[in-house]
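> run fold D-alanyl-D-alanine dipeptidase
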Amino acid sequence: MTEAHRLIHITPETHDVDIDLVYATDRNLTGKPIYKAAHCLLLTPAEAALHKAVAIAKTVGMKLRIFDAYRPPQAQQVLWDFLPDPNYIADLGLGSNHSRGTAIDLTLLDANGNEIDMGTGFDAMTIESEHFHPGLPEHVQRNRLLLLGVMHAAGFTHIKSEWWHYELPGSRSLRLIDNSESGPLRLM
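> ok
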């Protein structure tokens, strides 16, 4: 694997982030753990962009909480089998940018370590999860725009359907990274 395609471990100590990998718990849309161990990994360029996002969030007294990063194709299959809806789960034929190590699901924490109100929870596969869903309270719109600004300024882009999902532009041109190459991340 070349340096540009190397998965980097993301930890609170090395990246000054909070990590809550929900797919290693039963607190995800499937209701059961998908990963055996909670290892947060990103491809080298995504990891570099994360450093920028952390620094930008700090300028407004916020911290990032990561819900998911690299996701093996096998985990993507588990999610697709549970919810085969291309509006929310990447079509297996295209593959997920999570499985390329270039996508990250996250939110912002305030100075007290509390998640700011984004209107829906992570993995709420509803229309209200769209970035610019009309009718959400003003403070929710402001919070989503704050996260959007942090992540765009760091070099990530968003998808319409999930306020928590960001990825590097042009990621579809990269190959999927198989679970066997990632080492410590294993499926249940």
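The chain has one domain: 3-182.
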